[in-house]
Amino acid sequence: MKKFLCVVYVCGISSFYYSQTAKKTIPCYDLTEVLKVEATPLYKPHLDASKSFGVKLLRDSKTVQKYIGNGKFHKIKKTGKGYRVQKLDYSRAYMVSKAKATLEKMGARFSKETKGHTFTVSSMTRTLEDQCRLRRVNANASVGISSHNYGNSFDISYIRFNDVLKYNPKMEIALEKVLKYYVNAGRIYYIKEKQQSCYHITVRNY
Question: Roughly what angle, to the nearest 10 degrees, separates helices 169-184 and 97-114?
Answer without folding.
Answer: 130
